Amino acid sequence: MSFLIRTCAEYDGWYEKLDRLSQAQIEKRLSAIKNDEHFGHTRHIEAGLCELKFNNGIRIYFYRSGTKEITLVYGGTKHGQDKDIKKAKVIFNK
After folding, report:
1. Which of 89, 30, 28, 22 is nearest to 58 (CA)?
2. Mean pLDDT within 78-89
3. In the chain, where are the structural domains located?
4. How confident is the model at residue 2 (pLDDT cuts 50, 70, 90)?
5. In terms of DSSP bridges, do strands 42-46 and 49-53 run parallel, antiparallel, or are they unpaired?
6. Helix (H, G, I), strand (E, B) or coil at 68
7. What count of other Cβ atoms lies within 10 Å of the Cβ of residue 52?
8. Which residue in 89, 82, 87 sits closest to 14, CA to CA?
9. β-bridge pairing 42-46 and 4-7
10. Into which CATH architecture does domain 4-92 fall?
11. Helical ranges in the chain per DSSP H
């Protein structure tokens, strides 16, 4: 059984602004999560909120909604982590 990956509108808007190379890196990582349950480099932030970390500085904030389900909430870079984490919390708690 594969992982179900949902997205919020705010994540979708952020993703659409990325260049094609960054989008391809993200899609490769999401495919590994969906098909192999391999998350790679992540960090637990608090109460279900986690961060996917990429070597190029991209960060994706997600909530683990169940044992086989995640919701991608928002994205950013390591330079804006503090404000991006706050925004991810607000988005998910709407």
Report:
1. 22
2. 93
3. 4-92
4. confident
5. antiparallel
6. coil
7. 21
8. 87
9. unpaired
10. 2-Layer Sandwich (3.30)
11. 9-16, 20-36, 81-92
pLDDT (0 to 100) of residue 1: 60
* Amino acid, res. 77: T
3-state secondary structure 12-24: HHHHHCCCHHHHH
Between strands 69-77 and 58-66, the pairing is antiparallel
Q: Among all chains, which residue has been given the structure tokens 């991608």?
A: 72
Amino acid at 26: I
pLDDT tens per residue, range 36-72: 989 999 999 988 899 999 999 999 999 987 789 999 9
- Name the more confident of 76 and 67: 76
Query: Taking the alpha carbons of 1, 26, 59, 13 in that order, is the dihedral positive or negative?
Result: negative
Pairing verdict, β 58-66 and 49-53: antiparallel
Per residue in 30-45, pLDDT tens?
999 999 989 999 999 9
